Structures are given as C-alpha cells and as structure tokens.
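Morning F.,

Quick status update on the modeling queue. The single chain you submitted on Monday has been processed. Sequence for confirmation:
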Amino acid sequence: MADEAFSIDKRPLRDLLQQVEVGKAQLPEFQRGWVWPYPNIASLLASISMSYPVGTVMLLKAGGDVRFKYRPIEGAAPAGEPEPESLVLDGQQRLTSLFQALKLKNPVVTQDLRKRQVSGWFYVDMVKALDENGDREDAIRFLPESRTVRSFRGEIVEDYSTPDREYEGHLFPLHAVFDGGDWGYEFTDHWDGDKVKRKLWRDFNEAFVRPFDRYHVPVIELGQATPRQAVCQVFEKVNTGGVTLTVFELLTATYAADEFDLRKHWEHECRAAWKAPEYRVLREVSNTDFLQAVTLLATAERRRSEKERGTEEDRLPRIGCKRKDMLALDLDDYVRFAPSVIAGFKAAAKFLHQQFLFDTKFLPYGTQLIPLAAILALAGEATQSAGAQQKLARWYWCGVFGELYGGSTETRFSQDLPDVVDWIRGVTAEPRTVTAAQFAAGRLLTLRTRNSAAYKGIYALLLKAGAVDWRTGEKAEVTGYFDESIDIHHIFPKTWCEKAGYEANLYNSIVNKTPLTARTNRIIGGAAPSDYLQRLAKTAETTPECVADHIRTHFSRPELMAADDFDGFFGARKTALLTSISAAMGKSILDDESADGGAEISLDASDDTDDL
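Structure tokens below.
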C-alpha cells in the first residue's frame, strides 16, 4: 500500500479507552475472543505504570467500501448501537485488558495460567509500588470477586471489600486510575490528613497513577480505501501469536454487514446437504474448499461474460480461486453460485462411487474434489453421457496417478475447469492435466504406504476390477472394504520373504500387497503361498480352484504363488497393475529406465532392481 493509505500517530491511552467505552472503537466480527490470563494483564499494567512501551495498536478506519460486521470490545456496553469510527485489527488483547482493568466498574472475568475462568479486581500495593528495590509487577495484585483472601481452611485472612479497608490496607484499585484523584482525596480524608499518609499518596500518585494519564499509545490507522485482501494480510502479519485468520472468517464478517450469515449457510444449507451415509466421501470438505469451488464458478462466469462483450483475449479476467480471488467474491456471486456448487459436490460423490471410492480414508486427493465439483456444476447435464463420464474418469485418474494435486494446486484448478468442461462439450482437445500426467513404471516399487495418492488409487482400481476376499469370495467394496476388519496385507508374507533373502523394498511395495480381511491374513500368517493356499481352501470349505479364481481378481497369478515363485509373481503382477493404470489414464506406460524406451515391464529387466 502507498504511504497515504495509512496514518501513524500517538494517542493518549485515556482517549483510546474512552473510544472503546462509547463504541467509537470496536472489533471486526472476525476477531477472536479475549483470552489473556490475569498474570499477563498484571504485567501490562506494570509496564504502563513505568512508562514502558507496550506495542502499537493497528486500526482500520471504518466507513469504506469494504464493510465488516462489528461488535464492542468485551466489557464495553455503549449506549444504543453506535457505528464505530475505527475497527481494531491489532491490539485487541491489550485494549480489552486495559479497558476491563482500568475502566470497567465490574469484576474482570479472565482466566488463570491453567486457562480456568476466574473473576476479580486488580489492585496495586502502594507501598510496594514505591519500593525502588522491588519489582513493580509484584506490587500488582488480582483479588477475587469478593475482594477477600481466604486460607485453605476457608477463613478470611485479608478483607478489602469496602473503601475503608482499601485505605487501611494501602491497596489502590486500578479502576480508579482515571477518576481524577477522587480515591486519593478520600484516602487522605480517611487518615484525617495524616502527613505520612498524605505524602504516601502524593508519591504514589506521581510514580504510579500519573504515568497512566500521560501514557500515549502508537497507533497505525489504515485508510477507508484499504482493500479486503490487504486487511486480511495485515491482520495475519501483525497477529503472529494468534490463530490464522481464514478467508471464510473474513467473508463471514463481510457478508454479515449485509445481514447474511455465511457460517449458518455453510452449516445448514451446504454441509447438511451431504450428511447422508452415501456422501461420506465428502465429510472432510471444508468451508474453504466450498468457497474455492464457488469462486471458480464466479470467475469463470466473469470471464465468459467479458468474452461475449468482445474483450480481447489477453485482457480477459482470469479464472482463479487463490486467496485474493476468494476475498474478492461478493455476496451476490456467492448466493448465485452456491446452490450449483452444492449440487456439484453431491454429483462428485456419485462419480467417486462409480470409481469405487467411498470414503475419505482411501480418497487419493481431497483437493481434487474442488475442481471436480466445479466441473460437474458448470457442465451440468453434459456430464451425464457415457462418453462424458469416460472423459471425466480419465481426467480424474490422470490427476491421481500423475500425482498432480499434492502441492500448490490453485493454478491447476483454474486450468481444469475450462479445460475439462470444454473437452466434455467437444470444444477442445485433451485437458492440460491429462497431457501432463505421467506414471513411471518404477514408481510401483516405491509405493509402500497408503499415504500416497497413487497407492490409494491402485486399490480403487482393484475394487473396480471386482476384487474379492480370497477366503469368503465376498466383494471388498462399500461396506466391507472400509470396515475395520479389512486392511492391506502382504501376498508373499514378510517373514517368508526375509527368509528367502528378498529386499524389503520389493516385498514391502504395493506389488506385493492387497486388501484382505483380518481372518484371511491370520490364516496366511508367515507361511509360504504353497502352504497357505491349501489351508485357505480347507478353512473356506471349497476347492483350490475356487480360491485361485478369487486370487485372480487381485491381478495375481495363483499358479506362480502355488510354486512359491516370487520373481515370476512379482513381474506378472507389476505388469497387470501397470496395464490397469494405463487403461484408467488412457495413456501408455513404458519402462522409463530401459535403453530402448519401451521395454516390457518385468522383474527380469536389469534396470528394475539395480537402484534398489
């Protein structure tokens, strides 16, 4: 921002707290609640009493084009419903603490260091405050709401519940710091003008009370023209000790100025739309994900509209869903496109079910849901044909096996929406995501845990191919596959592989793993396949041929397993998996390390294992 976009000055603490009291300074709705414990407040009060700097307060001048819903600082109760002149961006904790301790005539409701709620009053011991060898912070006390201190037996050992007892205990209440000296006059009257007490008050007033009256706070005030994005960025930069402000929270405060409750809409209209069990794959969709999809549609419509008006290609507004794009999303666009996005996410769940992805646990990329929902929302009925579904599936699996949605993805989202929609409509050729996607054959050997998107993708392909449990013959899908009794297990057991001298990188790879029930895995144990295949048939009360048919549904060769031929099995299953991935992506997969650039994948190829 340019220099003229903000002002810097110093304002009397008294005036700032007065602005808080009458509602001229309030909080934007996105500010969190007050959380300072009383020892922090005592330290702040001590610093001001000694004229130490306590940091800058940052305000936003109200009344600009960017409007936020606002609320009074906690404890303030301004008359009527005044509109603020300034909104506090940084300094909320300090201003609230000072207002409650110095201006509020009620107990301060705060918390202790263990975050337990407590309420009470701040006092300062006049004698200790004047001790040059003492710590000013030790002179400040936080007394219970009753203004009494009790022993562990419940007996009152200190009582300052009346003004007379305050005077006798030489305890000055901090809420009297701006009372113009009234408490001091009453203090000296109580002691009948005693010279010693009068001098104590004069010294204390000069050393402790007057610094509050003279204290000035550095204030940076952003101008009315400050854009929403800048407010968000500034807030996060200065609130380094707080929780990061999300786009959703900022837009919630913005829309609330027009009486629209974004949070309520998200909870009751959006997320509630997919609470049914069949939509459980959507259960981790966040409010920010939803806003990104809405922003994609809004910016796509803006670009289409400008194009129809004849705007030159290089001057068309871009499609996007980055932070600044979402912050520029106005309420009218949100209301217009949110229903389409809700329908888009529900259609995305149905599409994922067709790809045998039923639950977030095995969803390759949660982020890919955002462009998927936007594509389905924008393309509408055009996505329902068999050809469109094939194209959509190909784009999806290219993203998964090309592992293209693991990092910064907003730019890819903005490409996917127009690319895939136009491709479905037959306007353009393959989307950039499809063109860019590559799956290296050697990647199978490094997929060992379900943390990888490609790992999860392969198991979805197994389900889609009709994988059944080896013992029961039941399909591992929908309820069974995601039940806790089914997990990923070794085909050639780890114990057997270790004894046979095979490398862990081979037997722990996805090529040697498949989904099985816990009971089937217990039957397998650590035995050789030639041994456990017989036991499987016996416990299943079926024939070895039937078990072999079950095994084939996992892209595995039972005859090689029966011969304990790990090398032959590994090479055959690797080829079968690559063939399935190739079909899903609609792209050829070659041995990326072979000399001729296109050798068939098998374990006998020397390049397959050299690096392992």
